[in-house]
Amino acid sequence: MDDIQKETLVREFRAYLDMVDLADEEDDTAPPPDLHTLLNELATLRTEVRTQARQFKTSLDQFREVFDTLRIGYDTLVAESSRRASDHQALRRETLRPLLLQVLDVRDRIVKSLDVLTGLAPPAWWCRESRTLMENLRAGQEMSLRRLDQLLSSYQIRPIEARGQSHNPFTMTVVEIESRIDVAAGIVTEEVRRGFLWNEELLRPADVKVNRGLSAAQNVLTSANDIQG
């Protein structure tokens, strides 16, 4: 860069600085706004703030209304879904109950046939084939009973344990009363027909024999007879 170019750049830079100083002086000498103008600007600003606040409040109220509407709709939907699910469950139970009772009747027949086969003593003159046939028949009935109990268990159906327990009028039906001195009064001595629960609800009550015990006079007479004996 030669000397002429350097002098040109210096002149241009000085001219730029003179322009900046002049602009600063003009700004510094500008008169401040009068009080009336300032008050008008403040009033305008306050009006704008109030307008924006009202708009914000209106928007907030609208949002609350929409939110309340959505909440009410959601609560209604949940209640309706719950009611439909409850109705469906009740309908399912009412539909299954007769079928399950029929399955229990089939189970009763299998249990009775097993009792007969178990208590049957084959005569001496039976051949080996006959004995084998009876054993296979009993094994087949036992297998059918196990599979049937597995099916019932899959539907949350379980038997009522009644024998040796106190009589429960809600789950047991007394079909016979006994008078025994070796068992306390009100105790179930035998299950005539097994009862079942379905999800903790009664599906079929148990038919039972219950001991009523002996009266005080009978107890004295029994004790006297025992002494004399």
Name the features:
alpha+beta; 6 strands; 66% helix
Which SSEs are present, and which pair or pack?
Blueprint: H1 3-28, H2 35-119, H3 128-154, E1 157-159, E2 172-178, E3 188-193, E4 196-198, E5 201-204, E6 206-211, H4 216-228
Protein described:
The C terminus is likely disordered. The chain has 4 helices and 6 strands; from the N terminus they run αααββββββα. It has a 3-stranded antiparallel beta sheet. A 3-stranded mixed beta sheet has the order 2-6-3, with no helix packed on it. With 229 residues, it is an alpha+beta fold.
Mean pLDDT: 78
* Strand coverage percent: 5-15%
Main beta sheet strand tally, sense and closure: 3 strands, antiparallel
What topology, given as strand order, has the largest sheet?
Answer: 1-4-5
Please report the total strand number as a whole number: 6
State the end-to-end CA separation. Answer: 149 Å
How much helix, percentage-wise, in residues?
A: 55-70%
Number of helices: 4
**Would you tell me the structural class of the helices and strands?**
alpha+beta
Give the overall shape, derived from the CA principal axes. elongated
Q: Could you state the order of secondary-structure elements as H and E?
A: HHHEEEEEEH
Which value, in Å, is the CA radius of gyration? 49 Å
Low-confidence parts lasting 5 or more residues at pLDDT below 50?
216-229
Entry summary:
The protein has 229 residues and is an alpha+beta fold. The chain has helices at 3-28, 35-119, 128-154, 216-228; strands at residues 157-159, 172-178, 188-193, 196-198, 201-204, 206-211.
